[in-house]
Amino acid sequence: MRWDHLTADDSALFGADAVTTRTFDTPEFRGVTFHEIRARSIVNRVPGASRMPFEWTVNPYRGCTHACVYCFARKTHSYLDLDTGLGFDSQIVVKVNAPELLRRQLASPRWHGEHIAMGTNVDCYQRAEGKYRLMPGIITALRDRANPFSILTKGTLILRDLDLLVQAAEVTEVGLSVSVGFTDRELWRTVEPGTPAPERRLDVVRTLTEHGIGCGVLMAPVIPFLGDSPEQLRATVRAIAASGATSVTPLVLHLRPGAREWFMSWLAEHHPHLVRRYERLYAEGAYAPKWYQRRITRYVHELAQEYGIGPRSSATARRITATRETAHEERPREESSREEATQLTLL
Ligand code: SF4
Fold first, then answer.
1. Residue 67 in contact with ligand 1 by CB distance below 6 A
2. Ligand 1 mean position, distance from CA 108 (Å)
3. What pLDDT, on the 0 to 100 scale, is given for residue 333?
4. Residue 50 exposed, middle or buried by CB count within 10 Å (0-12, 13-18, 19+)
5. pLDDT in tens, 195-229
6. Does residue 333 contact residue 47 with C-beta atoms inside 8 Å?
7. How remote is the CA of residue 346 from the centroid of ligand 1, in Å?
8. Which fold has domain 8-342?
């Protein structure tokens, strides 16, 4: 990893003298390298926030062992001269001082208690969190300041922090969303190989709901030709409804640079007959055509109505849903997004 060519934004986060590299010889972390750093800043302002429904993010990790083939945060690894393919899945940057830094920043007179979004870059409940345990300190800091926040995750590890989340929800607005784009197990095993199974994620939704914290589902990504048949969409929405989710928000796969190359090589290996169809569907760039997106959205909304999902039970849930819709409908702004805050992932 090159630390000597960081941009001004990056160097505000990382001190070149503060990198410790570790590996752990346990089956869970075999082949994974952790780069522990002491960040200089942890609350990131989203550039161009006027076009976003949130302005501030906290991301304690970079890289993600959940290893989703389509993950568009892959591109951010290139800013540290790390590989955006396997390197993104196995070279994890850990901001070990995130909780103390956040507590300090929240106490600053310049901070006015704005909403903080987490899980906007990489998953803050990826496996590394089981070892580094940064989120309890982060949630505690937010709870103690009654600072509103939201989390989007695929990680069942979030339930470890259930008590803290309940405590935080008693004093401030807490918005939780779990990402489940499909329930097809074969597709899950190959395209999201490091994640908990979709049904385990829906168990998270169920448990949160049982504890009085409404949780929405970001149905993302809907993967063209692999996870978008009427039967697949119906099975997924039915399972989401059964979990007690407060909302469901479908989002079609998009393929930005960094993710596109990785996804297409995966497609060529696993589903070579679909390569031409994808090239045609994504001929205009990172997004599937509007007609396709509308068709999926309309059908999922019909199914949601049929299965009785929602109406959303809180302003928070509405806010989170709006966040995801807006973020993923937008064109990427690569030029202004070298810092991770702008990299919103399809978790
Ligand atoms: S999509 Fe989310 S969970 Fe999957 S690898 Fe990217 S950050 Fe991790």
1. yes
2. 31
3. 30
4. exposed
5. 999 999 999 999 999 999 999 999 999 999 999 99
6. yes
7. 7
8. TIM Barrel (3.20.20)
Please, are residues 34 and 21 in contact by the beta-carbon 8 Å criterion? yes
Cα atoms found within 13 Å of the Cα of residue 252, Cβ hemisphere only: 23
pLDDT digit string (tens) for 17-34? Answer: 568 888 888 888 989 999
Q: What are phi and psi of 132, to 5 degrees?
A: -90, -20
Phi, psi of 209, rounded to the nearest 5 degrees: -65, -45
pLDDT value of position 311: 53
Low-confidence ranges of the chain (pLDDT < 70): 1-18, 49-52, 311-347
- For residue 125, report the distance from its CA to the centre of ligand 1, in Å: 10
Please give the pLDDT value at position 27.
84
Does ligand 1 have an atom closer than 6 angstroms to the CB of 129? no
Closest CA to ligand 1's atom 6:
71
Closest atom, ligand 1, to C-alpha of 73: 6
**Sequence letter at residue 196:** P
Ligand 1 atom with the shortest distance to the CA of 121: 7
How far is the C-alpha of 82 from the C-alpha of 75, rounded, in Å? 9
Report how far residue 185's alpha carbon sits from residue 198's, in angstroms, rounded to the nearest whole number.
8
The whole-angstrom separation of Cα 93 and Cα 80 is 10
Q: How far out from the chain centre does Cα 106 lie?
A: 23
Residues for the chain: how many in total?
347
Residues 6+ apart with CB under 8 A from 28: 127, 130
Determine whether the shortest distance from the Cβ of 66 to ligand 1 is under 6 A.
yes
Cα separation, 288 vs 281, whole angstroms: 6
Q: What is the dihedral of CA 203, 207, 213, 217, to 10 degrees?
A: 10
Buried b (16+ CB within 10 A) or exposed e, 170-208: eebbbbbbbbbbbbbeebbeebbebbbebeebbbbbebb
